[in-house]
Amino acid sequence: MKKILVTGGTGYIGSHTVVEAQQAGYEVVIVDNLCNSQVGVIERIQQITGIRPAFEQVDCTDMAAMEEVFKKHPQIGAVIHFAAFKAVGESVQKPLQYYHNNLRSLWVLLTLLPKYEVGNLVFSSSCTVYGQPDHLPVTEQTPRKPAESPYGNTKQICEDIITDAVRAGIPVQGILLRYFNPIGSHPSAKIGELPIGTPQNLVPFVTQTAAGIRPQLRIFGNDYNTPDGSCIRDYINVVDLAKAHIVAVDRMLKKQCKKPVEVFNLGTGKGVSVLEIVRTFERATGVKLPYEIVERRAGDIEQIWADTTFANTELGWQAHETLEDTLSSAWKWQQTLQ
Ligand code: UD1
């Protein structure tokens, strides 16, 4: 049995990845401090897969506690490192917490991996590292722009830490996965995104508005230089995204990586505007979505979408789910929360 450790495995992308990993035959150990997730997710994962993942409630920045995890669970083949703070706006308010949590957890892992002979690390990066690119779509070679937020900066710095450590010869290979905008839920509607308080991201806000929890969606700007004036993103189904992690781990364990650190864009390759999200949601669910156009949101980039050629050809992975089905899955999940 192949064993992997998933930090942040009770979180949004993490929980979907644990499901895919178990279904692909991996034994999973989750490490999570539950600071932004619920322990009940473990039970939900078990309901989907029939297998209860091992769970350690540990903070990834705690070196001694993490060391105990590696001692207790020997022979881990790879680590997928999701655990991190991820709210752009909050990172501007609390930069020190973001730098401490996101950088130290990676530092702890890179210190312990060689000691416990774990040679493979998959890291959750983000398209935020590109900023507003000069040319679209973005390839993995598109130059990174100076980060717009402490959150974005932690992703850039973490990419650099992994690259520098591997270059310096630590016996670890890395795969950096740059996610575009993950949305939707598992088709079982047993796991999904669980925003605490008012959602900052578009799709949770859309589903809460459709459910009547919020009076209306606020669309941040319709005067951008895009066909309908609203911002454009590359929205990727979270299950499709989760599957890419399993392909990445398989690739590492089969020693198929062509470089010590590989980078992949994970998106659909299609740019979709905020107004298109609204219309597609209404069409897919039959629910009318009240919205108003308000001022641009500070820090938003105008448009970005991925060139996914490298992931498609090199990983043999691509996003399959339609936007309609993905938004329907988000709505189905929202309805279970009421
Ligand atoms: C941001 C980050 C991304 C991070 C993600 C998760 C950047 C460039 N991207 O994505 O790296 O992983 O947050 O926190 O920093 N919108 C509305 N109304 C709303 C909410 C959003 O119109 O109520 C619009 C936004 O203006 C944007 C789009 O919807 O155009 C998507 O926003 P959001 O879901 O917050 O994600 P990003 O900002 O793209």
The share of residues in helices is: 25-40%
Rg (CA only): 19 Å
Ligand types: uridine-diphosphate-N-acetylglucosamine
| Tally of helical runs | 11
Largest sheet: 7 strands, parallel
Number of strands: 13
Query: What's the overall geometry?
Result: globular
Class by SSE composition = alpha/beta
Distance between the termini: 39 Å
Q: Averaging pLDDT over every residue, what do you get?
A: 97
Summarize the structure.
The protein has 338 residues and is α/β, with parallel strands linked by helices. The protein has helices spanning 12-23, 40-49, 63-72, 88-93, 95-115, 150-167, 202-210, 238-253, 274-285, 309-315, 323-336; strands at residues 2-7, 26-31, 54-56, 78-81, 120-126, 173-179, 181-183, 217-220, 232-233, 235-237, 261-266, 272-273, 291-294. Helix 1 packs parallel to helix 2 (40-49) and helix 9 (274-285) packs across helix 11.
Description:
With 338 residues, this protein is of the alpha/beta class. It contains 11 helices and 13 strands. It has helices at residues 12-23, 40-49, 63-72, 88-93, 95-115, 150-167, 202-210, 238-253, 274-285, 309-315, 323-336, and strands at 2-7, 26-31, 54-56, 78-81, 120-126, 173-179, 181-183, 217-220, 232-233, 235-237, 261-266, 272-273, 291-294. The protein has a 7-stranded parallel beta sheet with strand order 3-2-1-4-5-6-11, with helices on both faces. β1 (2-7), α1 (12-23) and β2 (26-31) form a beta-alpha-beta unit. α1 (12-23) runs parallel beside α2, α3 packs parallel to α5 (95-115) and α5 (95-115) runs parallel beside α6. The longest helix is centred in the first third of the chain and has 21 residues, at 95-115. Bound molecules: uridine-diphosphate-N-acetylglucosamine. Residues 86-88, 126, 128, 152, 181, 200-202, 205, 217-220, 231, 233, 274, 297, 300-301 line the site of uridine-diphosphate-N-acetylglucosamine. Uridine-diphosphate-N-acetylglucosamine binds at residues 86-88, 126, 128, 152, 181, 200-202, 205, 217-220, 231, 233, 274, 297, 300-301.
